[in-house]
Amino acid sequence: MCSTGNQDTEFLPERRSLRIHGHSTTIRLERAFWNVLEELAASEDLSVAMVVTKIYDHCQFANQKNLASCLRVVCLKFINIGL
């Protein structure tokens, strides 16, 4: 289940700073989730920041305050069923 070698970097947390509605924020996610967000952004012809903003808006509407958790759930849904 857990692999070794190059994939070990997928578990490392990575911080990225971006703007959501003009406000600067930093999000910390494991590299594997950033990879999925990059794939999701490419599939929608958007930047990662734009995808994160869309997810942020949805999470606020759904009254989910933890953006990192929302991002992880969206990544899992994208991998499992596609959005």
From TrEMBL:
Q: Which superkingdom does the taxonomy of this entry point to?
A: Bacteria
Domain (Ribbon-helix-helix): give its ranges.
Answer: 14-77
Name the InterPro entries on file: RHH_dom (IPR027373), RHH_sf (IPR038268)
Name recorded for this polypeptide: Ribbon-helix-helix domain-containing protein
- Organism of origin is Magnetovibrio blakemorei
